[in-house]
Amino acid sequence: DIVWFICGTIAKHNNWLKKLTENGSYRYIILAIICGIFTMCIFILLFLSDIGNGIMPPKDNDDDNCDDDDSGISVNGAFAGAYFGATIWFGICCVMLSLGWIQFGGLYLDFKNNVTNFFSRSAYTVYIIHPLVVCP
Description:
Elements: H1 2-13, H2 16-21, H3 27-48, H4 51-55, H5 77-108, H6 114-134
Helix pairs in contact: 3-5
């Protein structure tokens, strides 16, 4: 929590969040949508190619004990490379989705009314108290 608070303070001090929305660009929203669609396509492709049965060997019968043999998952270079690539891709998508949501909020949710004024007065108290409730 402290690291994110410091990062938010630095971002506010340098106007990084205002720079995301000052020219009306939709760059990060579009990149977030592309990341989401591409990731969904990958999962649909893996589902349609039946990757679930390709990794785990099917059982012959119900009384087959899979602990007796070594026919489980073998981690080879291709599997490790795919896992590493997926980790990198999900990290990039996490940043793009976060920037996309920040840009969306800055463009469309930056307004004041009675409801937002009520919640903004309580925001700091909730920020201070929430670790005691979430992580007792």
